[in-house]
Specification:
By secondary structure, the chain is mostly beta strands. It has one domain: Lipocalin (Beta Barrel), CATH 2.40.128.20. Helix content is about 0%, strand content about 60%. The protein contains no helices and ten strands. It has strands at about 10-20, 30-40, 45-55, 65-70, 75-85, 95-100, 105-110, 115-125, 130-135, 145-155. It has a ten-stranded antiparallel beta barrel. The protein is globular and about 40 Å long. This is DUF1579 domain-containing protein. It comes from Motilibacter deserti.
């Protein structure tokens, strides 16, 4: 339903834990860093946008990311797009899915470094500190590798 992401509206302190190079299926080194995020509703509540600011990433220059989420009432699904200053001018292909009992699963296809990859976003909309997890499948969905976890805490 269109209120599924209402838990995310507002300002957040974000703890990130990700594989140093999540585009490399053989990478096993994890890094951690802080970010801030703010999500606002758009289009009379059938969507939302959030901006994430990462001032001190462990692997390069500061960057800003933008997520657009749109609800399709006819299908009962959400589509989620990502873009960042790390890939100027690129809007990633969407992941599509829905929430069941506060757990959202969204999947889609992309190409990274010339290789096809299946992408999964998972949202756990628990009270107070929601979490987001990203996993990639390099074998068409047979196996999945977790590569990024964000835990959100309300910003003061």
């Amino acid at each position: 339903m269109s209120a599924d992401f209402d838990f995310l509206l507002g300002r957040w302190q974000v703890h990130n834990r990700k594989l140093r190079d999540n585009t490399d299926p053989d990478c096993t080194e994890w890094v951690e860093f802080a970010a801030t995020s703010e999500a606002v509703p758009v289009l009379h509540g059938i969507g939302n946008v959030d901006r994430m600011h990462v001032p001190d990433p462990p692997d390069g220059e500061p960057f800003e990311g933008l997520t657009l989420r749109l609800f399709d009432p006819a299908a009962g699904t959400w589509s989620i797009w990502w873009s960042s200053t790390r890939a100027p001018g690129r809007l990633d292909p969407p992941v599509v899915g829905r929430f069941t009992d506060g757990h959202g699963v969204f999947t889609g296809d992309d190409t990274l470094r010339g290789r096809p990859v299946r992408v999964s976003f998972e949202w756990h909309a628990g009270p107070g500190c929601p979490t987001w997890r990203q996993s990639f499948s390099w074998d068409g969905g047979a196996t999945w590798v977790l590569n990024w976890v964000m835990t959100l805490h309300p910003a003061p």
